[in-house]
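Attaching the record inline, Q. Sequence:
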Amino acid sequence: MAIISQTEAQAILTKVLGFSKADECEATLSGQSGGNVRSARNAISTSGGIDNVSLAVEARFGKRSGVATCNQFDDATLRTCVTRAEEIARLAPESPEYMPLLGPQKYLPATNSFAKATADITPDYRAAQVGSSMVVSDERKLSSAAFLNDSAGFIAKRNSKGLEAYQQQSGLEFSVTVRTPDGTGSGYAMADYNDAAKFDAKTLTRIAADKAAGSRNAKALEPGKYTVILEPAAAVDLLDNMMGSFDARNADEGRSFLGKKGGGNRKGEKLFDERVTIYSDPANAELPDLVFSGDGGRSSAPPGLRKGW
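Structure, as predicted:
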């Protein structure tokens, strides 16, 4: 039930808009299924799963707006959800930052953001992958803790201005920390895949185990400048923190590195070396992402920096 086809999803959203009497109305239908498993000290500790589809309706009267949600899609429930959103909107204060809903958009062509291998993951698969990770640690007499999380789903949008969007998406994340028994060595590895067919927990655990064994009895370095080569896991954390600060409000209010003392932002200033290039491509073959953002606009989210559901 967690993945509804584009035709069925848009039929539900069209029906929702037909029930609305608001000046503007937008409906978003999304679904997700997946699960996770966690290990600690070379043993499974927890596991869980999720399977849900939900609808969010936003109704607007002038600059007032209200949102209601539901997860049943019969006509009576849909009509009630719309009515509640409109009731909330009529009671809400006017928004000083009101922006009208977007009209029709031209998105990038459909990407390979959905992989059947990821959608088909079962509890047995998760247990086998984490089990293979623990075997590596057991064989090398190391202690490990790992977390595997996967999901597959869809998001569909439609509004009274003519915007229509739909896309399926899947993803798998794995991280593992390996330590030596005496606690003097520690190693870490993580990976993020769209397609589970590319994932191998054993290989990643071997990388973490090698780091742990190689870092035994590490020695302190004198303070100074050192050339450091970051692996992808470390680089993406830096990029994630930086991209989260590319926000006009945070900059204007002095709450990011792009803010100026005394107010305003640093737009137009040179901040990075010419050798640094950062670009966005949600249709990237290796790290595909949604081609539209939360408001239905064309997506500019950096590939690989997951936004979640």
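The first helix runs from residue 6 to 19. The helical segments are 6-19, 75-91, 116-119, 123-139, 201-214, 232-243, 248-252.

More tomorrow.
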